[in-house]
Amino acid sequence: FLTTMLDFTQAGEIALLIDEQSVAAREQTIGGGGILPGRELAFVFSTLRGNDLIWPYVVGNYLEGRQPDAFDILYWNADSTNLPGPMYCWYVRNTYLENNLRIPGQTTQCGIRVDLSAIDAATYVLASREDHIVPWQTAYRTTQLVSGDTRFVLAASGHIAGVINPAARNKRNYWSEGEQGKRAERWLETAREVPGSWWSDWSAWLRSHAGTPVRARTRLGSTAFPEIEPAPGRYVTVRAA
Question: Within this chain, do residues 22 and 82 fall inside the same structural domain, yes or no?
C-alpha cells in the first residue's frame, strides 16, 4: 500500500470538502452513469495546496509573463483522469463519508462481503511524513486492519515526492523498524531513521518474499489473454476532458 487510506477516521484536509449534501448532489447527477471530469478532481487537489500549485503561476506566468520552470512530477500530476460517476459516488460515500471499508462485512464487492482482516498475505505499507492527502498516521492504521505480516515504512516529503524517490539519486530519508502497535506516534518514537530512498528497503523486502526466479517471457500474452497492441497502449495518450 503506497500512501493509501483504508480507515478514514482522520482523512486529512480533503475531508473538509466532503459532506452528505455534496455527495448526495453528485449521486443525483452522475451516480447512475456519466463521469466525474478529471479537470474537476485536479482542481480540488490543487486548491488544497493553492500557495504551491495555483498562485505561483498566477503571479509568475499571468502577471509577470514568465514561463514556469519544467517540473517532471508536476507534469505527470497534471495528467488527470476522468472517473466513472457510479464508482466515484460509491467511493466517497463508503470511505470519506461513512468510513465503511474498515468495518468487516459492511461493504460488498462482486457479491462478496469485504473483510480487510481476512487479508493474511504479507503487506508493505508506505506513508509520507508530510502527506496532506493521506496523513501518515492514518496510513499507519492499515497495519491494524489486515492480519498478515506487515512492514510499515515512513518516507520523507509529501504524497507524490515521498513515493517517487529513485534509489539512484538516493535523496531524503525514511524511517523503519518502529515498535508496531496501535499508536502511530509510538512507532515513530522507536523507529530508525535511514538516509536515502525507501526504494532500497522495498527492494530488500520484495526479495525476501519472492519465489524462485523464472526466465523472462519471450512472447507476450496467451491464448486466453492475447496481446492487444504495443506498449504503452492507446489509453496513455488519451487526455481527460
Answer: yes
